[in-house]
């Protein structure tokens, strides 16, 4: 019922309401729980063997803060239940083998598709980031280092680049914590500017899952937590996906 | 007083509160109006003679909708008071000759600084956009065509790429309409996905200027106005700038 509801919406042409509230929020059938467990979503999302390049690995551009916090979280993946999420060039690589609503079906195509936050491939110039996720806590931490191609005010990251980093971290968290797929809303209060080349830490929590929606919050701050860069909230829509 | 207040804040090191409310919102001195007229800001922003490349000009990647609406607005620049804003590789090029708060002073630097929304220079792959501004209406229209490097869901623009485009259009509007410089908040409700390679039109209005803040709203829709992609609001902080 739910899938059919969204498929109906998704079949509409590109220029019609894909996400209009009347289309995307069909009445929830209380007997149809969201099927995929977080474990199965995580194992699909983090393939053990793949030839795809993982962009969420340290490189020479990472600042010492970013490197050492990365190592700290890597230790936590061994004992504390944290998982390091791989990050491929395209979202298409993450959703291989999932049956998507037909309007979103992946068609073969020669174009060089890139997920926005991996749009710049020169190390250190654009987005450097890695996301760690904790399934049972439904929490994520994103280590983010903006490069000089992400500038807004001279020497500082563009507010929009942080907005996109938040949306992306929310998005991956929503997907893994409860099949959340689409951003319904994003609200940000900016407090301080992030210097280009420095580390900002995004702490994301799923606050509740209700009525097919995931409600999340994020505090972005310096590593020492003394400077809050921004606070934000995001609401994502759940969509049940099936394996092919 | 106002300048000193922000300069004080800006002198703080990068990791201290640049934009903490207590620092950036000193009590407004009612006798000190914001000095620069919109006309002088616009003429500074749109230099008649410059060697800088303007990225807001048509290229072979623009879709027919984008091209024809561009031509329509170009006509409006001749009679209806609209202004086409140039778009350089870096914000640093726009603010040459302005005395900035010291924490934001532009230092000479060999790095390839790019404003985030011009981070990708390959035509058609990333951001294609042009902003038109109407000084007396305090209104902007941004024609935005996302390329395949801005992908989120397969075939559609990442929500974060639209968020950044909104922030950038708000930012330029806020600056020209009233010396608005910094995003304080950004709030977006997403309604529909924007297909990669198609035109989205951002309609921005300055709703009010009060208490050193510009309140703006934006409706993003298809050219035929039948599909609303998103609605958003933004609040920007005014900062008085002086010519050197």
UniProtKB/TrEMBL annotation, chains A, B:
The molecular function terms of the Gene Ontology recorded here are: long-chain fatty acyl-CoA hydrolase activity
Span of domain Thioesterase: 155-226
Lineage, top ranks? Eukaryota, Metazoa, Chordata, Craniata, Vertebrata
Give the GO cellular component terms, alphabetically. mitochondrial matrix
Q: What is the protein's name according to its record?
A: Thioesterase superfamily member 5
The protein's organism comes out as Molossus molossus (Pallas' mastiff bat)
Give the source's domain of life in one word: Eukaryota
* One Pfam family it belongs to: 4HBT
The processes (GO biological process) annotated in the record are: cardiolipin acyl-chain remodeling; long-chain fatty-acyl-CoA metabolic process
